[in-house]
Amino acid sequence: MAFTMSDQASTAGKVITCKAAIAYELNSPLSFEDIHVAPPGPTEVRIQVTHAAVCQSDLYYLKGKDRNLLFPRILGHEGAGIVESVGSAITDLKPGDKVIPVWQAECQKCPRCRSGRSSNICDVFLEHFESGVMRSDRTSRFSRVADGKPIFHFCCTSVFSQYTVLDEACVAKINSSADLSKVCLLGCGVSTGIGSAWNIAKVTPNSSVAVFGLGTIGLAVVEGAKIAGASRIIGIDRLESKFEKGKDFGLTDTLNTSTIEKPIEAHIYEMTKGGVDFSFDCTGNPDIISAAMQCCRPDGGVAVIIGLVDSRKLVSFHPSSLLLGKSWTSGLFGGFKARTQLPGLVEKCMDGVINLDHYVTHTMPFSDINKAIQLLDAGECLRCIMDLTTASVP
């Protein structure tokens, strides 16, 4: 079902029938079935999703760790594809363009986008992210073939569908020579990790770094810190199997929390003789978030929270921890402005500065999406790339 330019004339302005993986309830397998995808509105873009991957954030919502998940819903926010058709008001995209769907919207028009500040927060993101519908008319572009009932969108993207419709603020146009089976990873995890090192913490040459949790985001932090010139990068995890892989990304030291008796922050403080310059929590575990903050040196250390925390849990600390100049911060999508900066990040991947290949541990057809979810949930893969261009009901 690969889209070609000759297909555009026959599909533009019409409803497309395709395969999608639909979430109907928490903690249950996705249903792989036919859906209808409506044409885009004036400020919208319909794309053929060629490749997608499951991210821990998909599992976060599927497990009910956020209170706002609507059903039925098409999940998925890490993917890449080709523009099939555009709305009447779209001038900077055309059928055939290669794009990355971006949940971290950048409308380039709102006061936040035009403020000149380094923040990547956009009004469209704040208003539209959790709505489950398109912002133009507050309706969905997805519906069930069986009965015509609407299906909610997810994270402005919904890439677990062979075709999806996006607001123009959520589409980053990229190099026409980019390999979509690789750059799909820039839709979330890899960009978040690398950007957290570069844009949020601003890791400096010859610095020391601690990374808690060595999944895709954690390893992307490691890679970003290495590229930034950090001289010591400590990887912390409870699974011994993750450390060898981490060394390929740039780890210089490893700590297995399951074998250390004293608090991990005390252990790191001792081994670094005063704490690390930068720390990153990539777990979302409140206890580990606290440990990551405490292991930073008190005079100017920077601790970054990246992992999604269960909305029912809190993290507490005493303000005196920050009195000497330590910073505790966070950010979304690694601080990247998606439409403006993702094209440049794609170029860095194409030039070999960033190695996307070593994040891919599995590849499989779209119809095996529930297997991909199981592998990620069990900690048995980093990223599983699914090919959406051909699919059949399993």
UniProtKB/TrEMBL annotation:
UniProt keywords, alphabetically: Metal-binding, Oxidoreductase, Zinc
Domain Alcohol dehydrogenase-like C-terminal: 217-339
Pfam families attached to this UniProt entry: ADH_N, ADH_zinc_N
Keyword Zinc belongs to the record: yes
Domain Alcohol dehydrogenase-like N-terminal: start-end pairs: 41-174
Gene Ontology MF terms in the entry: S-(hydroxymethyl)glutathione dehydrogenase [NAD(P)+] activity; zinc ion binding
Presence of the UniProt keyword Metal-binding in the record: yes
Cofactor(s) this protein requires: Zn(2+)
Alphabetical GO biological process terms: formaldehyde catabolic process
GO CC, one annotated term: cytosol
InterPro entries assigned: ADH-like_C, ADH-like_N, ADH_Zn_CS, GroES-like_sf, NAD(P)-bd_dom_sf
Domain of life: Eukaryota
Family statement drawn from the similarity comment of this UniProt entry: Belongs to the zinc-containing alcohol dehydrogenase family. Class-IV subfamily.
PANTHER family with a match to the protein in the record: ALCOHOL DEHYDROGENASE (PTHR43880), ALCOHOL DEHYDROGENASE-LIKE 4 (PTHR43880:SF56)
Protein name: Alcohol dehydrogenase
Lineage: Eukaryota, Viridiplantae, Streptophyta, Embryophyta, Bryophyta
